Amino acid sequence: MLDQIYRKAVLTVSGQKVVEDLVRSRGWGMAQRFVAGEDAASAIRAVQDLGRDGILGNLDLLGEFVASPEAANEFAGKVLHLLDEAHAAGLTPYVSVKLSSVGQGQTVEGEDLGLSNARRIVGRAREYGGFVCLDMEDHPRVDQTLAQFRLLVGEFGHAHVGTVLQSYLYRSEADRDSLDDLRPNLRIVKGAYLEPESVAMPDKADVDASYRRLVYAHMKAGNYVNVATHDESIIEDVKLFALAHGISKDAFEFQMLYGIRRDLQQDLARQGYRVRAYIPYGRDWYPYFSRRIAETPRNAVFVLRGMLKG
Ligand code: FDA
């Protein structure tokens, strides 16, 4: 319960314009703990560095809802450029995209712009043998994101596009069942947005239990699972579950955020598990940074200390 109160307080305060302006003006140095840099080249370098420890990368150009088709197309152009750059650097590109950043919800020529831009992005990733994960945003976007995911899997195959389910949403287990026919590649997360109790479980113990159920059900169904959490007890349980059910290490991977629990990422990689770090980069770091602060008071202390140092 205290976790929830803390999370809500941080997400509410960080939504205030005055707080945003203050943190934006003083915070880039601190944000760099969680953000790989401002351009694609820095993010690609971060993937290469992690690769030396046997850790894979998932590149994320930071950006959320954009209001105009021009801005959405410009953002999509940057993601395409990222795919080109990653490929040119000898990587198999793996990127995450928020559909709201490429125009989801805006209709252009009779089609949702988020979908048409996602088509361009997934198509380009497929040319390079790469992969695109459609991040999950706040709950009003879930229906459309899952419907668009379904279309994209139909067009490009499940080896090139995946999406995310959030265990805090009551609906996620039913969503997982409804996607099973696609043999979908799913990332399971707890959920990072400020959601009302009518749609999201208020109690952390319930969110954790739902998390385990989602991962186990997806593994048992024989689908690829991205176990995206820093929760060591869940990670241990998933390892045991896989062993007990004869699920091989290449049927799932652990995913964590760049700059968080690097020790655990390295340990798992050494144990022969596939590990992928989510590597955000770009200038629009504030909303991402706020959600990381909301996840643990330790990060808030880190930021306050940094601000006091001036
Ligand atoms: P939990 O919050 O229970 O924490 C478990 C342990 O990890 C605790 O000890 C905690 O202190 C530590 N920890 C967690 N977060 C930390 C942080 N920021 N800094 C330091 N320590 C931390 N969400 C979403 O809504 N849509 C999405 O698409 C994604 N995508 C995504 C990708 C990947 C690769 C990850 C790892 C996470 C996401 N998330 C997400 C975020 C996710 O929903 C969730 O908010 C965070 O992962 C934190 O929850 P944990 O599962 O780590 O557990």
Question: Beta-sheet strand percentage?
Answer: 5-15%
- CA-CA gap between termini: 33 Å
Low-pLDDT stretches: none
Give a quick account of the main beta sheet: strands, pairing sense, barrel closure: 8 strands, parallel, barrel
Strand order of the largest sheet: 1-2-5-6-7-8-9-10
Provide the gyration radius in Å. Answer: 19 Å
CATH class: Alpha Beta
Question: What class do helices, strands and sheet pairing give?
Answer: alpha/beta
CATH architecture: Alpha-Beta Barrel
**Small molecules bound in the structure, each named once:** dihydroflavine-adenine dinucleotide
Shape descriptor reads globular
**Helicity level:** 40-55%
Q: What is the number of independent domains?
A: 1
Overall pLDDT level: 91
CATH topology, which one?
TIM Barrel
**Record field, number of beta strands:** 10
Give helix and strand order, one letter per element, not per position: HHHHEHEEEHEHEHEHEHEHEHH
